[in-house]
């Protein structure tokens, strides 16, 4: 079996993320590194709840995705799954760029623990979360959008 270069793995994870149909709506940008991930996205009024600020589901998506990719950066063979995730919503946001920064905290053979912090455009913390993630039986492949960058 061929060893996968870390940078190729990170780019393939980014490609898999971009291929997810849900991201056609959110249009986030992802950067994966060793045990880290950063996701940025522009706030859109279609993400608002009735009180005209971003719905908590958007906070959850950003935090879970950033923590998930921080953990996934260490798994080169299978898709991982969120097994639990806890969030703290700290302040509302109504406009601008939001950025989630994820970091792997712990890993074992089957379980990973990661956290993420979500910031508004003024770099104020607006939410934070942490979760655990586990290996699945789904192989990383083009079937899940995991594809290596073109080589020139």
Estimate nothing, just give the exact number of structural domains.
1
Compute the number of strand runs. Answer: 6
Could you name the CATH topology? Thiol Ester Dehydrase, Chain A
Shape: globular
How large is the count of helical segments? Answer: 3
Order of strands across the biggest sheet?
A: 1-2-4-5-6-3
SSE ordering: HHEEHEEEE
**Quaternary state of the chains:** single chain
For the terminal residues, how far apart are their CA atoms? Answer: 23 Å
Structural class: alpha+beta
Uncertain stretches: none
Helix content: 10-25%
**Average pLDDT metric:** 94
What name goes with the CATH superfamily? Hotdog Thioesterase
Main beta sheet: 6 strands, antiparallel
């Amino acid at each position: 079996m061929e060893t996968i270069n870390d940078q190729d793995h990170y780019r393939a994870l980014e490609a898999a993320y971009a291929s997810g149909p849900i991201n056609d709506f959110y249009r986030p940008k992802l950067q994966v590194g060793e045990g880290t991930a950063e996701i940025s996205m522009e706030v859109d009024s279609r993400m608002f709840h009735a009180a005209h600020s971003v719905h908590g589901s958007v906070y959850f998506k950003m935090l879970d995705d950033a923590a998930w990719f921080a953990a996934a950066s260490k798994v080169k063979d299978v898709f991982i799954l969120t097994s639990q995730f806890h969030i703290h919503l700290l302040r509302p946001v109504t406009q601008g760029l939001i950025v989630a920064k994820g970091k792997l905290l712990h890993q074992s053979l089957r379980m990973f623990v990661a956290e993420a912090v979500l910031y508004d455009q003024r770099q104020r913390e607006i939410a934070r979360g942490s979760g655990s993630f586990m290996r699945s039986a789904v192989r990383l492949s083009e079937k899940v959008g995991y594809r290596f960058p073109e080589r020139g």
